[in-house]
Amino acid sequence: MMERANVCPPACPRRLVALFAALWLGVAGLSSPARAEQDETVIVVLGDSLTAGYGLPNDEAFPSQLEAALRKRGHKVRVVNAGVSGDTTAAALRRLDWALTGDADAVIVELGGNDALQGLPPGATKNALSEILEKLEAKGLPVLLAGMEAPRNLGKEYVTAFGAIYPALAARYSVLLYPFFLEGAALNAELMQKDGIHPNGKGVTVIVDNILPKVEALMAASQANEDG
After folding, report:
1. Could you confirm whether 49 is annotated as catalytic?
2. What is the pTM of this model?
3. I want to staple 191 with a disulfide (CB 3.0 to 4.6 A). Which of 2, 126, 143, 185 is the partner?
């Protein structure tokens, strides 16, 4: 068996290189028309398990349902799932640069839920989100910031401080704000998974329906960037 594994003649490496080059060029040629649509908007969803689709098949996750809803409304759009379950705002900040695709036109930021569940200081959450928004601003990418609310058992002071993060940052960086990502689904047992934290497929549909106008405003901001 060892002898048969070493039967490649001297010209073999050159042939392999030529073969791989031909295959790569062929694949690139086939895929380029799909990526060459000048009017396709690429939206990256930077988030945690709520957008990653925890407990759901891929086609029921937020990015997939959002893309389908936007396409149904006539938009040429691709929604990229950059959600990672368990991510805090600090963790998302560390992976921000490689989480963004090179052709990103706009970003939805949905983060903070894990910070609150861990009882992290609201100031730390605000600082991490601020750095994320600063980096996106430097890249010239319009942003839709989706807010989150802290569990009430953390106390009124914490809940108030945490909830104030999102409108304050939206105002500071002049980005679009959707006050509460889980609006319409939270606390509704029929729309949430058994853990009471993550939406089920129907819950995601409600979330998409509610946030859709803000996402269309985000797309309009992206288009304005290109026109400008």
Report:
1. yes
2. 0.83
3. 185
